[in-house]
Protein 1
Amino acid sequence: MKNYLIILSAGMLTFAASCASVEQENDTSALESRIDSLEAEIAELKTELAPGLAVLMNQNYDHLKKLEVAINEGNWEYADFCLHEMDETFEQIVDLHNNHDELVQPADTQFKAFIFPTFEQLEEKVDTKDQAGASQLFIELKTNCSKCHTANNHGFIRL
Ligand code: HEC
């Protein structure tokens, strides 16, 4: 009789344990599908709320104009600030619009070709407060922005 009781309670324990694990599996799969739907919602919001390519380009243009003034006035701190903001905008464009419809090649590939080499040299000139060098590279940078517009069938956007 004692043996039966032991076997019975062991059996009940095993049963309880397996119920708990089924419940746990259900919880996990419910959480997983919740995560999936939240991820889908975030992706949708990102597309809906993110600034468009033209908005980010205009943002870059604002900083480009302010950069020109800052270089002319020898306001190196502001020039540095503008370059930093532009760098962030390039990153945002790559993050949000790397394969935008209006681009013939991914944005990051084209930034490497048209922008970054000149941009990095300009950063150096600003760091060393070299006004003549910075002014020259500024013109080069602005020209390269327009070159990318031409390469992407937007040659009419001349800066
Ligand atoms: C990868 C190539 C590329 C580079 C590099 C690039 N642009 Fe653009 N830009 C575009 C494209 C494509 C458009 C058109 C966007 C659209 O149709 O939504 C555009 C649009 C613009 C516009 C027009 C936005 C409007 O609403 O009127 C401005 C201003 C602009 N770019 C400024 C700049 C500046 C400043 C730089 C350099 C710092 C630059 N762009 C570099 C591709 C580029």
Protein 2
Amino acid sequence: MMFFAAAFLAAWSLVTATCAGECPSGGEEDAVEMLQAHLTHEGRLHEDAEIRGAGLTDDPLCEILRNATWPTGRVLCGDAQMQTYGWDVYNQECAGLTPRFLLEPQTVQDVQTAVKFAREHQVNISFRGSGHTYDCVAFKAGSLNIDLRTLGSNVTISYSGGSATAKMEPGVNFAKMFATLPSTLSFTHGTCESVGVMGYTLHGGWGATTSTWANESIVEIEVITADGELRTLNAANQGNEAKLWDAMHVAASSFGIVTNLTIQLFNHSERSFWFLPVLNSFDYLLSVLPDETSFGWIGLARWDSVFYQKNTILGSGWFLQIVLKDDSMWTKAKAVAWIMSKLIIIGITYQSPYSFPSSAETWDLGRYPFQTASVFTRFYPRTEIRGAAKLLEGFFAQHAADCRYNLGPIQGTAPRLPLVTVECNTPSSAELLKQFVKENSNVLQPNRPGSGYIKLPLDGSSSYRQAYFPQYAQLSATKCIWDPTDFFFLENGIHPSGCDSARAEPVKK
Ligand SMILES: Cc1cc2nc3c(=O)[nH]c(=O)nc-3n(C[C@H](O)[C@H](O)[C@H](O)COP(=O)(O)OP(=O)(O)OC[C@H]3O[C@@H](n4cnc5c(N)ncnc54)[C@H](O)[C@@H]3O)c2cc1C
Ligand SMILES: *[C@@H]1O[C@H](CO)[C@@H](O)[C@H](O)[C@H]1NC(C)=O
Ligand SMILES: *[C@@H]1O[C@H](CO)[C@@H](O)[C@H](O)[C@H]1NC(C)=O
Ligand SMILES: *[C@@H]1O[C@H](CO)[C@@H](O)[C@H](O)[C@H]1NC(C)=O
Ligand SMILES: *[C@@H]1O[C@H](CO)[C@@H](O)[C@H](O)[C@H]1NC(C)=O
Ligand SMILES: *[C@@H]1O[C@H](CO)[C@@H](O)[C@H](O)[C@H]1NC(C)=O
Ligand SMILES: *[C@@H]1O[C@H](CO)[C@@H](O)[C@H](O)[C@H]1NC(C)=O
């Protein structure tokens, strides 16, 4: 048994630790070309003086913003300069939301200046991290858009009493964290390496390899609020700041712009993740999928367009995702024994998947962006998850070329419930998915309080608000305190309601 397990594992080492979850597909080349009206990365790095001198747009505010952030901020205005911006977004539709001004700040002060400028001149504001959303909430047409990545992407690890924290800047994505952390430390992260850590952690953050939310690891937040002030938030805050601290854990982008984030790290190495192509049918796999096992957690995924070249689907196209509880040989052997005992047939002729995009630069290689994106992700009680999973698979089976499917991994009796996800990336399949969810709302319960995880909505509307913000009323009251004019407006975010009109401006402290 042990010998078999070792041989088996050697054969499969290639397919571990890849990108799971709702990841990208290959070859949307025409979409990429459209976005590559932008220049190359090098092409973007004009001399500031050149940009400033060439600022001959007829927008009078452009020069005011440029002067105000001079010499550290770089401001693009007008069509010609906007063309030079590398969008680096997941959903091509985001690139249609052309801003009026685009600021690449180098200092926190630049961002504060931009906030004050936008308020004073009544320009809408938007701000982006890694641009890895389905619904383009980081962009608004006609706005002043701040590309927070130019603030930096340093990660500083600190040790205190044997426990470790990581303090990071807004440009950090998961790839950067993996590259920085020693193998003895880990954190809750998503599955696509190009997702921004701040955008993820500040809105919840679900990960396949841990059973806690990423937001539970937040130790400190440095944030610029709607009044342009820079504040430091942590668990020691009292009063209104304590309310802001709470809100920043689930709906941060409705409340402020985070310039530095500190998280607690786990004092153990990352759990191993196996990704095994199997020949069995979905129905069979679902019937043997346990809530939990002694060796770890199991889930199912199918992303034909990601894992296979055209017309090369292996077996049933389904993948078993196994998260091991530790790396001992005994645990691995138990996982292999489970696979054999359930008569699961592994697709052994399978080659390693394509390499996955891990940074904005690699997005240009043809994986991103998708034409569009629409995602349905919901948590279900363990008694309901298989029913919802089967129903959604019925939809997915009709659209496997344009959509991707992910179930679990189901994480046992952990308080966080198991989830199922379907993502579609063509306008027609995305629309059909929305209709399907609506028609099957009795089973899928799209608006059940707390059943969705934040920032994975079906669209940019607030129609399923309860799923993401069961504590909406409380967040709305906090919004009244900190952003009563809804300066950080997001359609599917938090809005002030019933505010005391005497409080037209956010209170200081
Ligand atoms: C393919 C894919 C896979 C994903 N997988 C997972 C997953 O496994 N688990 C999970 O939980 N989520 C997952 N997500 C969702 C992802 O975590 C969120 O979309 C996240 O908000 C992305 O952050 P970003 O910086 O990459 O994106 P952006 O589009 O740049 O930002 C997203 C939002 O966060 C705000 N934001 C970004 N930076 C800051 C900041 N510094 N301060 C304040 N607000 C900020 C933006 O304004 C915007 O509203 C996935 C998304 C995609 C597209
Ligand atoms: C911007 O700065 C330049 C150089 O100092 C100055 O000549 C110009 O008048 C300023 N423009 C505005 C609108 O303040
Ligand atoms: C600013 O945003 C609001 C809310 O979306 C919108 O109604 C308004 O038209 C926007 N203003 C401009 C100038 O784009
Ligand atoms: C973030 O914090 C680090 C460490 O305190 C600091 O060196 C860095 O300048 C900060 N970066 C930003 C963008 O605030
Ligand atoms: C942060 O990164 C910059 C380069 O982006 C580097 O010059 C600087 O020294 C780094 N700061 C720290 C504290 O690591
Ligand atoms: C972290 O793990 C190491 C090795 O496993 C152990 O020696 C140390 O005490 C742990 N630290 C804390 C704070 O748990
Ligand atoms: C973390 O995010 C999840 C998902 O939105 C939420 O249910 C939970 O309450 C958040 N935790 C904290 C500490 O805010």
